[in-house]
Design a protein that fits this description.
about 200 residues, elongated, mainly alpha, 9 helices
Length: about 200
């Protein structure tokens, strides 16, 4: 935590701060936010949330378009961070502190305040892509090393005609590794979601 930031003791305090700012911006811009849309700012599957969130979430899933909602909120967040924060350093610091606090948990609003939603970029920092490529390379190297060790240990006990350590299987590994990498990238970029709205 940066020393000059206001600390939020609880998730609820941080959620209230961000939700209040988003709702206030919606009023300034005459953007309609229903009660369900306002309450969805508090959505979480694992951390503190509103007591009626299960009912709210079910209603949201039935009556609202998630992508449209996220674009609407992203537009409001963009207005807050790009315009109001330029003229109000204290509020910007509080906003950053609230985002940091909620980043420790699993909150839908952490996705909604992500700048990539408003820009449509959806990208990740270059070092994250580098980590993915290095992980994939590590998997390939570990696979080759494991096969070499098994071959050395088992040696002649393997039937040459049934040798699963053959170059054909090396080729299969080379095909599988990029598939694993692509799936990992898709999950990290949010193209595939494993659970909930995060």
């Amino acid at each position: 935590m940066i020393p000059w930031m206001q600390e939020f003791a609880t998730d609820r305090e941080a959620l209230d701060f961000l939700a209040d700012r988003i709702v206030a911006e919606a009023k300034r811009e005459n953007v309609s936010l229903s009660a369900v849309e306002r309450k969805m700012l508090y959505f979480s599957e694992t951390d503190w949330t509103l007591p009626d969130m299960a009912k709210v979430s079910a209603s949201f899933d039935q009556d609202y378009d998630e992508d449209e909602y996220e674009r609407k909120i992203a537009g409001l967040v963009s207005a807050i961070t790009n315009h109001h924060h330029q003229n109000n350093r204290d509020e910007e610091e509080q906003w950053d502190a609230a985002v940091e606090k909620l980043g420790e948990g699993d909150h839908y609003i952490s996705v909604l305040v992500n700048p990539s939603l408003s820009t449509g970029e959806g990208g990740r920092p270059a070092h994250d892509i580098l980590k993915l490529w290095l992980t994939a390379a590590g998997i390939v190297v570990a696979g080759f090393a494991s096969m070499a060790v098994f071959g050395w240990i088992l040696g002649s006990r393997l039937d040459d005609n049934q040798d699963w350590l053959s170059f054909h299987n090396f080729g299969a590994l080379i095909v599988v590794a990029p598939v694993v990498l692509l799936i990992t990238i898709a999950v990290r970029r949010g193209w595939i979601t494993l659970s909930g709205r995060n």
